[in-house]
Structure formats: C-alpha cells, structure tokens
Amino acid sequence: MITYKLCSENDLDPMFEAFTKGFSDYMIKFELTKEQFKNLFLGIEGNRFEYSLLAKDDFKPVGIMLGGIKTYDGLKTLRCGTLAIDPDYRRKGVAQELFNRHHSIGVKENCQQLFLEVIKGNDKAIHFYLKQGYEIKNDIFYYQLKDASLLNDKETNSYMIKSISFENVNDFYHKHDDKHLNWQNDFDYQKQIKEMMYYGSFDQDQLIGVLSMTPNGKIFYLFVHETFRRKGIATSLLHFAKSKANFKSINISVTHKPDLMSYLEKQGFVLQSISQHEMYVSL
Fold first, then answer.
1. How is domain 143-275 classified at the CATH fold level?
2. With 80 as the cut, is the pLDDT of residue 153 above it?
3. What pTM did the predictor assign?
4. Could you tell me which CATH class the domain 2-111 is placed in?
C-alpha cells in the first residue's frame, strides 16, 4: 500500500533515495551525494521539509515532490522544486496524488500561485502539468562563452568599476529594472551564495551598471542603465570580474530579454540546446 506524508528532517535518507531512483533515467544525470542534495535542493533552491511530500510503498521510498514558498514576482508562490517517481511506480497515480497534496499545501498556506520549471522536450511531464492547470508563461534560455579569453576587448571609457554590496545591486534592480528574473537568478537565491561577487560601474557617484557573478563564471545578474548602454560598460564589468577570479568560461541563464540576448550573441556566447519552460497555475 502506498502512503504519503509531509517530510521532516528525519526523512532526509528516504527523500534522497526517492530522488535518486526517480531521476535514474532522466535526460540530465544527477550525481549528487546526500549532503549535496540537502545543500542544494533543501538549501539554496528554497525547498523546505515542511512543504515537501514523500510517497512510500510500505518502507520503500517511491516518489518525492519538493516544495518551497516565498513571494515571487509580488505573489506568494509555492514552487515545485522537483517531482520524481520511481520508474516501477509510474502510471500508478503516485504523481497525481503528490500533486493533489502539493496543491492542498498551496491553498492551506494562502498561496496565490503554483510554479515550476520543466525542460523543453520532456513532453510527458509537460502534458501532466498542463492537465493540472499549469500554463507556460516564460522560457529560460542558457548561454555559454566556453572560452572566457574570447570575451571582446573592453572599450576605453572613463567609468570607474569597484566592488559593491548585495544591497547596492538589489536596490539598483528595483529602481531601474524590476522585471521578471528566473528563480535561480533572483535576489533571494543570490543572497544565499556566500562566494557571490558584486561589481558596479560608476559615472562619478552615480551607479550605472551592475554585475552579480560567482568566481566560477556564472552570471546571475547583468544590467546597465538604459542611458549608458552601448558604451562598453557591461563588457568592462565582465573583464573586471575576470581579473579578480580568472574563470575559464562564462555561463548565464535568461528569460526572454532581447537586449541582453543580443548582447550575449555579439559577445560570442552560444545558445545551449537545453532550455526550460516556466509554468504557473493561479490559486
């Protein structure tokens, strides 16, 4: 008999077992230790034990649905951090029951929407989510500059670049941009990454461009005030970051932002074959 329960910290072992088994045949291979699983999926990703669900057949973990709640794009949101079912237990209603309970958590917690990401091409999963009432609202695209030394030469300009704080970048975003960021790039996510580097470009005392980036070359946020674009500021920020961390490649994920995507392509970044849908359902 299959039973379902809300998770607690005592369930880490069966949660990890269910996750590992459920993703054993996935199109992207996960090779995580239990500690890495905990730190990523129950840490930075924002999932919480109390909003996550575990399915068991007697004592055997057969399914898991992780959940996390926060205000996202101004709405209280329950996100599905992952849904994984043991291959031997698929098409037996396990995913549907986990989703029903996930939905109930959202209602109980007065959430305004449910949210998840799914890889394009995972047609079975997409079809399942559409049946649950989700709609595709945005796409996430992944770009890579495989050799960071190929970054275009920075243009000569008089703008000063220096390290700034998380608060500086966050305030700049809300004042000058404030558009949708995918979950893994938003500022709640950034704040949890201890090694994050924050740099700003200044016109005298005015902050005109910002960069959030990790030392391994992952960009989380890059934005230049519209008045100061096409002056080499974004490229100068990247060169400055490279001088501090000497990363070998540069990676970035973006939702549909034509100006940024055009800039990346001119810089030689290559659009990767994997992309994701962002799917939502209102409560």
1. Aminopeptidase (3.40.630)
2. no
3. 0.93
4. alpha beta
